[in-house]
Each structure stands twice: as structure tokens, then as C-alpha cells.
Design goal:
Vacuolar Fe(2+) uptake transporter. One of its GO terms (cellular component) is vacuolar membrane. GO terms for molecular function: iron ion sequestering activity; iron ion transmembrane transporter activity; manganese ion transmembrane transporter activity. It is a single chain. The protein has 207 residues and is mostly helical. It is built from 6 helices and no strands. Helix 2 (30-57) packs antiparallel against helix 5. It has one domain. The protein starts with 5 loop residues before the first helix and ends with a helix.
């Protein structure tokens, strides 16, 4: 008759109880979370800053909307390409390491499950950037009075920044308040600097 030590049984039971709840690795979310949150924030802040900058010297609504749309397209393409190249480089490194570890020339598809996917990262980044960029575009598209348009756009961008900051913190189990404040203040600074410098250059007579 085989006797199982009580300590071993307790340790095994504790391990089973903790594994589903306490041993979850939130870093597994880091790849898609980073692409989505950074993409949305970049789309929101860069597009709003571009529109603010143009609005500092040219109050025409068509100029602001055209600038914002150009920023959306260019930024989404840039984010997608940059994310694709970055993740593909990471994939090459991990696949090369697998080949060294298993001493094989080819790695089966089943063995590469869980490796970073450059196409998914690029698509997520471009989509997130576009969604973020749509906020200032939609906020300013239907408001002709210049001052009202700027105020509405700034309010919409601030609200969206707060949502993105909170969402990123919640998904990554990070402090929500600090993350939200950091994102909102960073966005304000970007828009203020762009607006101020563009207005300064315009005031100097550069057309």
C-alpha cells in the first residue's frame, strides 16, 4: 500500500487552487494591448494636434478637416508599418531561438503557437489609430463657428483620452487614476505646444 505524504497533498491542492486565479500572467496581453492603446492614443493626440495647429492660423473648417483626414491616413499607415517591422523582428528572434533549442532546421506550425503575429499587430495598430483619430474629426466636422469648434474638439479629445487611459490601466491591472491623469495631461501638452508654436510661426508672417 502506497502512502501519499500529507504535505505533498496539501501543496498539490494549494497549487491547483491558486493556478487559475493567482498565476495568470497579464504580460501575455502586452503585445495586443500595447498596439491598441498606443495606436488609439497616437491617433487621438496627433490628429487633434494637427487640427489645432492648422486652426491656429487658418480658421476654415475645410482646412482643419482635410488636415485631420490626411493625418489619419498617414498615421495609420505609419503605425501599421512600424508595428509590422518591430513585431516581425521579434518573431525572427524567437523562431531562431526555437531552432537553436530544438536543433532543427524547420519549426512545425504547432510549435509556433503563441508567437507574436506581425500581421495582427499591424492591423490592430492601424485600426486603433484610425478609431482614435476619428474623435477630433467627428467632433469638429459639423461645427462652423471657430471658437465653438475648438472647444468642442478639445472636450471630446479630453474625454476620449480619459477613457483610453482608464481602459489601458484596467486591462493591464495598473493604477487607473495615475494612468488616466498621465494620458490626459500628455494629450493636453501635445495639443497646446502644437497650437502655440504654429500660431507663433503664423504670427511671424510665414505663409
Amino acid at each position: 500500500m502506497t502512502t501519499i505524504p500529507v504535505n505533498s497533498m496539501v501543496h498539490h491542492q494549494t497549487t491547483l487552487e491558486l493556478e487559475p486565479k493567482d498565476l495568470f500572467d497579464y504580460s501575455k496581453r502586452s503585445q495586443w494591448l500595447r498596439a491598441a492603446v498606443l495606436g488609439a492614443n497616437d491617433g487621438l493626440v496627433s490628429t487633434a494636434s494637427l487640427m489645432m495647429g492648422v486652426g491656429a492660423v487658418k480658421q476654415d473648417i475645410r482646412a482643419m478637416i482635410l488636415t485631420g483626414f490626411a493625418g489619419l491616413v498617414a498615421g495609420a499607415c505609419s503605425m501599421a508599418i512600424g508595428e509590422f517591422v518591430s513585431v516581425y523582428s521579434q518573431l525572427d528572434i524567437e523562431v531562431a531561438q526555437l531552432k537553436r533549442d530544438f536543433n532543427r532546421r524547420d519549426i512545425e506550425v504547432a510549435e509556433t503557437d503563441g508567437l507574436p503575429n506581425p500581421w495582427q499587430a499591424a492591423a490592430a495598430s492601424a485600426l486603433a489609430f484610425s478609431l482614435g483619430a476619428m474623435v477630433p474629426l467627428l467632433a469638429a466636422s459639423f461645427i462652423k463657428p471657430y471658437k465653438v469648434r475648438i472647444l468642442v474638439m478639445a472636450g471630446a479629445v479630453t474625454a476620449a483620452l480619459a477613457v483610453f487611459g482608464w481602459l489601458g490601466a484596467a486591462l493591464g491591472r495598473a493604477p487607473a487614476v495615475k494612468s488616466t491623469i498621465r494620458v490626459v495631461v500628455g494629450g493636453w501638452m501635445a495639443m497646446a505646444i502644437t497650437y502655440g508654436l504654429t500660431r507663433l510661426i503664423g504670427a511671424k508672417g510665414l505663409h
